[in-house]
Write a structure and sequence with these properties.
The complex is a heterodimer. Chain A is of the alpha/beta class. In chain A, 42% of the residues lie in helices and 16% in strands. Chain A contains 15 helices and 14 strands. In chain A, the strands form three sheets. Chain A has a seven-stranded mixed β-sheet, with helices on both faces. In chain A, strands 1-2-3-12 form a four-stranded mixed β-sheet. In chain A, helix 8 links the parallel strand 7 and strand 8. In chain A, helix 2 runs antiparallel to helix 11, helix 7 packs parallel to helix 8 and helix 12 packs parallel to helix 14. Chain A is globular and about 60 Å long. Chain B has one domain: ACP-like (Non-ribosomal Peptide Synthetase Peptidyl Carrier Protein, Chain A, Orthogonal Bundle). In chain B, helix 1 packs across helix 2 and helix 1 crosses helix 4. Chain B is globular and about 30 Å long. Classes of the chains: A alpha/beta, B mainly alpha. Chains A and B meet through strand 6 and helix 7 of A and helix 2 of B.
Amino acid sequence: MALFDKYAALAAQYRQLEQAGANPFNVKFEEVLSPTEAMLAGRRTLLLGTNNYLGLTYEPAVVAAANAASSASGSGTTGSRIANGSYGGHGRLEAALADFYGRKQAMVFSTGYQANLGIISALAGKNDHLLLDADSHASIYDASRLGYAQVTRFRHNSPEDLANRLRRLKDEPGDKIIIVEGIYSMLGDTAPLKEFAAVKREYGAYMVVDEAHSLGVLGATGRGLAEQAGVEADCDFIVGTFSKSLAGVGGFAVTDMEGAEVLRVVSRPYMFTASLPPSNIAATEAALHELRTRPELRRRLNENAHRLYRGLERLGFELGPEPSPVVSAIMPTPEAAFGLWAALLKAGLYTNVSLPPATPRGLALLRSSVSAAHSPAQIDHAIALFAEAGSSLGLLKAELAAAK
Amino acid sequence: MSDQASEIREVIFGTLQAALPQARPLSDDTHIIEDLGLDSVAVMDFVMEIEDKLDISVPLDKIAEVETLGDLVATVQRLKQAA
């Protein structure tokens, strides 16, 4: 049997998309022009699928900080922090994150994916229990396989179901660690965090909240859903990423727990990888400063999110349950998602396609994400393109119902 | 075969039939992924239903070891007895 035979079905689908000349999983921007525009196939394209929530990728202060740090400290660290030492910037960024969250300790990881891998795999030991929301991101599932804990899924966003599963485990030895997300990346829905926190307290469990898509988006100061829901004290660890609102790459965790420093010598995804380069660390610190001092970015982002959500809703697209910077239209089939994606791209609008098993309940999604950098006119233009393409493909709710 | 095993088999086969888009013949030898075309999330969702119907906890690493419906019946039976 040949090595790639096990992927034959997937490879055939991929080839088909390539041959059709419209493969959402292999997009090549010739040039990125700004947080909202890029050149694609020789044409100026509006970007509506980049997770660039605060639009800080071209912010002069952020870019200048990256350039200055490269000049001063070099292009890379060429090693890991435990084996080859930390640079000043690593400690400064950790202090800035701890200060922002009002927590004793922060830890920086080289990607957001590794932050989940590093925290979850280290927290849950052999006889412990991880309880994952069923719609958790792949990094959370992968983290649960990297450790040796027993893993239980509970129904998405259901505190009752979590309580039921904790009840079944109540006589089992070991710590119980609940993992939830602030905003879920596929449908843009938020967790009922207050209710989860109550269940956590009732069963004496721990709770980790991944704010990857909610940092800089939710909360009075932009710390995320835990801040908005008023339950930060119940969140033993907050995990997040630098690659969305903070416009860089990397991940972090913050905590108040005594003794958490030991994670630096037990968390393998922290220990056995190169640390972030000075440019990225400095850019992230500068972006965090922008996030903290310019609340108008968050307001604009949320206005844009509502504008797109309400616009697509009016057109008759079936959407995720609530407006957020992630706006996903639920498609009847993967083929419909590919068709709409290609039609929008042809009209000059870049979005994303999300398919099972990355999506919940086998859904095929045409996923958009908005930025504070979008102008209202750009959002309206995007809605107009959705109207045209959606109608010509028969994908609006009324048309789908009529076709049934 | 004990009563409990046949009851567990009944619950598993019934839950699975309801989850499949069209009715399929099922046996202990049916491969859950290869024969039924379920993806990893669909399998986990289906096991979640079984956990609730039998009031047990089936850890994900136990699901990873399961290939056929017969494997699943045996795994669930062990967990039910331990509960």
